[in-house]
Every structure is written in structure tokens, then in C-alpha cells.
Amino acid sequence: MRGLIFFLLAVIMGNGAIAFLDAENTSMQAPDINSIINVLKEHKIAYYLFSNEWGNQFLVVPKFGARIFAVSVDGENLFWTHPDILKGQGGQRSWISPEGGAKGFIFRPDWKGQKDFSAMDPGDYKVVHFEENEHLILQNRFRTTSNDGKEDYDLTLTRELRHLDDPLQGEPGFKELHYSFLGIDFVHRLRNNSQALLDRILALWCLIQIPPKGTMVVPVQRVESGEWRGNYFEPIPERFVKPNPDSFSFFIHGSQRYKVGIRPEFCKGIICYLAKAKGQDFFMVFMTFPVMSDERYVDRPKEEQESDGDAIQIYSHLEEGPLAFGELECHSWGLKLQPDAESAFPIKIFLYKAPLDVLKSIGKRLICPQFDEAHIFEE
């Protein structure tokens, strides 16, 4: 009898441990947009939800840096969002560059620590205009000083978002294809509120965090090794880079850190990420943006502070499991901001979900003519 009691206790404790582990695993799963909204409601955090005619959605949270915190395409969040929702990390975010160096104010000049950058992320963003399911404008004004102490910044960041129509709508050859679409028209603006000229020392940038184990495809002017550099962090492994007829493919590992930059003179103003979705489909996220090849870009590797910066950057993070992610990132040129002047950096974000052959057809039309010949990593 006593043995039976011990046996039953062991079973109960074992089941409890399994349930505990399952609970932990569940809490670390990639959150979908509905679970995110439930947490936001529970903690009384304001959010704005936009839905298109396809039933696909994007979610903006002012408290979390006014970022597009998550998306839903056929019910799947195609952005990476931190499993702990209240950390407010993930999705699409935008910043001021450079982060470090003499004119930056996020990283310290020695790159061994950070200043307080809560003014921008999460930031005190205020909604200044809202039309339900149509249009949203948010602003954040802050003051700070450059690392070299020579610039007193008085700046306003504006984030403006609208729906974007499917560019393939009505096009012959695409009417019979089965895919799902979400488009976001995003404009990032920087205003100089001071009476001092800011002469091409600051820029705007935008990134999207995505789940790893996919392929970043970057169309370029010429397929040569000198068109990109990988010395921001640890070097990208050679096997993770493949040249294509009119682009480069880079593998996003997600748990191995590296960053690759593409110089503006080689860019075509587009960066694309392709990866496996749930089920049998794949998904594609890409951004289009203006490039000024003859202007100076300000974000560059910390060991090359005197060189020109990059217009495109891709990033693979270093954590494992649900905390692994990658980034596709685009930069504006250094902005010349007169006193009380404002400059804009417009970006269009496209998300498609479909079988791989359909996405290759879409890529040939919208990304680069030989997209179907681009190397797709399968690791």
C-alpha cells in the first residue's frame, strides 16, 4: 500500500513538472496578434488596429515606440515579437542614426555602454491624428546632446501610417494566383526645432524584426563582393552568402550574430526577406525606399567612423529559441535640416503569404527580374 502511495505521488509530481514545462514553453511561443491584444487589454495599454479587405491586420502601440508591433496575415504574425509582450520589443521600429560616434547620442563614444534612450524607445509618442482604420500620425519631441557635446538637439520624430494597396491588383497573370497580402505605407519624419543648422549629421532609419531561418534577398546594381561589408560585428560565415544574377542572398540564422551593410551606390532601394510560414506556405516581407547614391550616409561600422555609411543593413541576432530574430533595415542619407525645417523618409512595406512558386512570381515582378533564380537557404 505504501509503495502504491509513493508511486501515485511520483506520477502526480511528474505530471505537474510536465505541465509546468509545457506552460513555460507556451509562454515562450511566438505570439499572434490576438494574444498580444489580450495582454494589451489586460494591462490597459492603448493600441490601434488596422484591417484591410483581405482581413489581414497590423497593430500599432504608441507606448512601445509607436512601432508596428505585430501583423497578421492569414492569422499568422509574420514579424518577430518578443514572447514577453510587456517588454515592448519586436515588429517594425524606426530611429535616428547614427546611434554612436561623435554625433550620435544612443551608444557612448567608447561603445561600451548606453545612454538613456527612453526618449525614443519606447518614447513618449502622442497621437496627433487618427482616422479609424485609415490613417494614424504619432509624434515624439525630445531634447538631448551629441556625444561630442557640440550639438544640442531639439527634435521631433513623426510616424505616419496608412494602408497600402496591393500593387498586383488587376495585373494580368496575377489574377488567378492564390496569395494573401498586407501593405503598409509608412512615412518617418524628423524636424529640427532648434535655431541651429543640422548639416547631414543625422539620418532616419527603419527596421523590421522577423523570425529567423530565412533568406534575405538584396537586389544590387552589380553582383560583386565589394558591394557589401560584414564588419559590424562578427563576420558572416561565407556559406551564408550567395551571389545571384541580380542580387545577393544572405542567410538569417537568428542565433549567430552578424550584420551586413550595402553601400548606397550599389542599392536599388529594396530589401526582401523570404522564409517558411506555418503549414505549406512561405511568406515574404519587403520594404521599398528612396536611395540617394551621391549623398553621405551616416551609419557605419564603429571601426570605420570616417567612411561613408550604408543604405541597407541586415542583421542576425545571437540568442536562441523564441528570442532569436533577424532584421531588415534601411537608412536615409544624412539630412540637411535648416532651423524649424523637417525632412521625410517614406517607406512602403509589403507582406505576401503563398506557396513558394507564387512568391517567386511576385518577386520577379516587384523585387528583381531574376528573383526566381535567387538562392533560397534551407538550413
Short description:
The chain has 379 residues and is mainly β. The chain has one domain: Beta-galactosidase, Chain A, domain 5 (Distorted Sandwich).
Number of helices: 4
* Largest sheet descriptor: 10 strands, antiparallel
Please tell me the overall pLDDT.
90
The global form is globular
Rg measurement, Å = 22 Å
Q: Largest beta sheet: what is the strand line-up?
A: 5-6-7-8-20-16-15-10-13-12
**Could you name the CATH class?**
Mainly Beta
| Overall number of strands | 20
Helix content: 10-25%
Polypeptide structure, described:
- This protein has a single domain, classed as Beta-galactosidase, Chain A, domain 5 (Distorted Sandwich).
- About 6% of the residues have low confidence.
- It is mostly beta strands and 379 residues long.
- Strands 5-6-7-8-20-16-15-10-13-12 form a ten-stranded antiparallel beta sheet.
- The protein is 14% helix and 37% strand.
Describe how the helices and strands are arranged:
Elements: H1 2-27, H2 33-42, E1 48-51, E2 57-61, E3 67-72, E4 92-97, H3 119-123, E5 126-131, E6 135-145, E7 152-163, E8 180-192, E9 198-210, E10 214-219, E11 228-229, E12 241-243, E13 247-252, E14 258-262, E15 270-276, E16 282-288, E17 312-316, E18 326-331, E19 335-337, E20 342-354, H4 356-366
Antiparallel strand pairs: 1-2, 2-3, 4-9, 5-6, 6-7, 7-8, 8-20, 9-18, 9-19, 10-13, 10-15, 11-14, 12-13, 14-17, 15-16, 16-20, 17-18
